[in-house]
Design brief:
There is one protein chain. This protein is mainly β. It has no helices and 11 strands.
Length: about 120
């Protein structure tokens, strides 16, 4: 019943910009954290950023100042705005959530229950 659908990925040159979208349904969107993770071949899954249930945004150090998460509650959608992209940003990006609601400072460690199909981002040098 819970659905998360990612879109907006593509191929860009280093220094470019992409905006990813995560459209959700089947749960209380405003009462739950939405978290972006990425997965690249031969790398560990990495938490990118979190839009928490209280409106707080949190980011991993490597993307601070370059990535921004925004929410459009009317459309049950969160956006990952990515600027000054680097080759190391390459990967499949997933949005995830969990029935428990908020995430807090330990957002990277929560075993999120729901996720989408992912959208692929490739950044060329």
């Amino acid at each position: 019943e819970v659905q998360l659908v990612e879109s907006g990925g593509g191929l860009v040159q280093a220094g470019g910009t992409l905006i990813l979208s995560c459209t959700s349904s089947g749960f209380d969107f405003d009462g739950h954290a939405i978290v972006w993770f990425r997965q690249a071949p031969w790398k560990e899954r990495e938490g990118v950023g979190c839009y928490d249930s209280d409106g707080t945004t949190r980011y991993t150090d490597s993307v601070k100042g370059r990535f921004t998460i925004a929410r459009d509650s009317a459309k049950n959608t969160v956006f990952l705005q990515m600027t000054n992209l680097k080759p190391e940003d390459t990967g499949v990006y997933y949005c995830e959530t969990d029935p428990r609601g908020g995430a807090g400072f330990l957002w990277k460690s929560i075993p999120y229950t729901y996720w989408g199909q992912g959208t692929e981002v490739t950044v060329s040098a």
